[in-house]
Amino acid sequence: MRLKAVNITVLAPGATLVENASLVLEAGELVALLGPNGAGKTSLLRASLGLSKPAKGHVILGGDLVQALTPMQRARRISYLPQIRPLAWPNTVHDVVALGRYSHGASLGRLKTEDAEAVDAAINACDIQELSQRKTDTLSGGELARVHCARAFAAQAPLLIADEPVAALDPRHQFRVMDLLKNYVRNGQGALVVLHDIALAAKYADRFIWMKDGQIQAQGSPEETLTEERLAQIYGIKSRVDGSKVVVEGAL
Amino acid sequence: MTSSRYINPFLILLSVIAIFVACLLGTTPMAWGRVFTALIGQGNVTDSLVIWQIRLPRALAAFLVGAALGASGAALQGLLRNPLAEPGVLGVSATASLTASFVLYYGLIGAQTWLLPIAAIAGALIATTIIALAAIRTKSVVTLILVGVGLSSFAGAVMSLLLNLSPNPFSLFDMINWTLGSVANRSFEDIALAGPFLLLGFIILFLCRRGLSALTLGEEAASGLGVNLRNQRIYVVLGAGLATGAAVSLAGAIGFVGIVAPHIVRPFVRHDPARSLIPSALLAGVFLVVADIGVRLVPTQSELKLGVVAALFGAPAFIWIAMKRQGGGVGPS
User: Fold this and answer.
1) Chain B residues closer than 8 Å to A72 by CB
2) pLDDT-derived band of residue B128, with 50, 70 and 90 as boundaries?
3) Could you read off the pLDDT tens digit of each residue along chain A, which spans 252 residues?
4) What SS3 class is residue A134?
5) Which range has the worst mean pLDDT, A190-194, A213-217, B10-14, B77-81?
6) ipTM greater than 0.85, yes or no?
């Protein structure tokens, strides 16, 4: 399975959010999308997912135009973990993870064997077995992050897009969530992840996509594209880079 | 949790008992044996007349109205992810009874009886559409409730204007009945008139139940899961509008039932909006049947109005839920 977004331009009234951006996500790779706030990352992801229609460009997902797929077909090919993850009701963890099976036609409370197995597998993968009957309003931020990952994994889609999955987590939980994503990719699935922690991205990602002012500035392996100049240009920070080691010294 | 499996059979049993008791009680008390024989068509003529012409249609009307409001409430709460959403609070019932009153006001009802449900449903659809549009524009629960309050007030004001200008005391009386809400003197013909719309509303709401579950995760994640958000909104609005409009055409404006029933039901169905639809409908139906029994039994000079009694219990419950919500912090407020 392959996601290919070609020359995407996203416009908002009076602003260009994304300009002529192209990206590819393949199964088996973990790609980090990096860039400052307002760079257009989320807009590019939403257009790539087919959730918004870009002003220009097109997206091919598994050989089909993403806009030509029904929402359910699309959701079976690519899973999406949005940046804002509200929970309207105090459901149990198990039910929230089971919502990940929506695109397979699952109804809460009466899961088919196949759905129940996928839910259990996702719960095991994210190490939240002991939480599965807890209500979500009793969980900590770190626990919730793993629950949302499990929800995204439960769809068993070949590809996954996660928008800042580790935001507001302490370092240990950041590593735990990234480990989950790494395992997911090791199983032959592909993940595109928005990250703000460059060191974390360097540790986990196979490939970087650098974005600023609505444009993709560079793409490539961490070794090729992670440089002091790049960080200065993208984020306006002064840093020292040594291989995949990054020390940020301050704002420029 | 086993409670979610037993709640529907339990509530169905409760509904049957409530409707049977409603047939039992009245100005001329009837032993349960006589009621039973009359119900299966073996009773004497007077008994059968009392049961089949007066008590049973009245009880069924109360039940159906409650069920429509309960299901609409549960569905709107799922769609808006807000435990305070309800046809009454959001001004849907008031708008529906306003458009129904227009028909009464112009005396059109004499000509075409089916105009009444059509008018009520049209009003309900207008109001639900406004609410749904407001829900797209604002994420704030408070704003939404305020839009509902505005709709209610506006419908109330136009209603007062109609009452004010009413050409004759008969339509005045009719319209007042409409705003207060009652199922007195309802016949099977009335039920048959509203029934198809009610059923259609139920079916539509039931068919979009899975999307309501998915919306628990918010609109962004729900569309990522494969929910067609636009269709989901349209169908819930349509279903709730049809059911509420039909309920209003049957009984006038009855508020707060649609908020209390889902609130009680939710913990038993693991807070899943989809699984709360049917039990909410059943419980709200039972609630109105019981309230209507109370209305008939309380010895007052002129009969109490069902809508008044429902609001007397429902409004404090609404305030209680609203105040409890502040501490909970659950949901997009």
Assistant:
1) 226
2) confident
3) 999 999 999 999 999 999 999 999 999 999 999 999 999 999 999 999 999 999 999 999 999 999 999 999 999 999 999 998 999 999 999 999 999 999 999 999 889 999 999 999 999 999 999 999 999 999 999 999 999 999 999 999 999 999 999 988 898 989 999 999 999 999 999 999 999 999 999 999 999 999 999 999 999 999 889 999 999 999 999 999 987 788 889 888
4) coil
5) B77-81
6) yes
CA A51 from chain center: how many Å? Answer: 14
Q: Chain B window 173-202: which residues touch A at a Cβ cutoff of 8 Å?
A: none
A66–B contact, CB cutoff 8 A = no
Cβ-Cβ contacts under 8 Å, A51 against chain B: 220, 223-224
Residue A127 has which token pair?
């190490």
Q: For residue A37, which of A247, A200, A235 has the smallest C-alpha distance?
A: A235
User: In the CATH scheme, what architecture does the domain B3-327 have?
Assistant: Orthogonal Bundle (1.10)
Nearest CA in chain A to B266: A89
Inter-chain Cβ pairs, chain A and chain B, closer than 8 A: 102
- Check residues B290 and B48 and name the one with the higher pLDDT: B290
* CB of B207 less than 8 A from some CB of A: no
Bridging pattern class, strands A64-65 and A78-81: unpaired
End-to-end CA distance of chain B: 29
Judge whether B206 is closer than 8 Å to chain A, CB to CB: no
B263 touches chain A (CB under 8 A): no
Region B245-250 average pLDDT: 92
What residues contact B41, with CB distance under 8 A and at least 6 apart? B48
Nearest Cα of chain A lies from the Cα of B36 at a distance, in angstroms, of 37
The closest alpha carbon to B94, from B120, B55, B129, B67, belongs to B120
Place of tokens 């309802």: B186
Query: In this predicted model, what pLDDT tens digit does every residue of B299-326 receive, in sequence order?
Result: 777 788 899 888 888 889 888 888 886 5
Question: Is B100 within 8 Å of B74 (Cβ atoms)?
Answer: no
**Window A:154-173, CB contacts with B under 8 Å:** 155
**Angle, in degrees to the nearest 10, between helices B56-80 and B257-265:** 70
Whether B270 contacts chain A with CB within 8 A = yes
CB A173 within 8 A of CB A128: no
Buried-state track B94-114, b at ≥16 Cβ within 10 A, e below 16? bbbbbbbbbbbbeeebeeeee
- For residue A112, which residues of chain B lie inside 8 Å, CB to CB? none
Question: What is the residue type of B296?
Answer: R
Question: Token digits for A98?
Answer: 């089971």
Residues of B in contact with A81 (CB under 8 A): 221, 224
What is the three-class DSSP state of A180?
helix
Domains, chain A, in order of start with CATH, read: 2-85+157-251 (3.40.50.300)
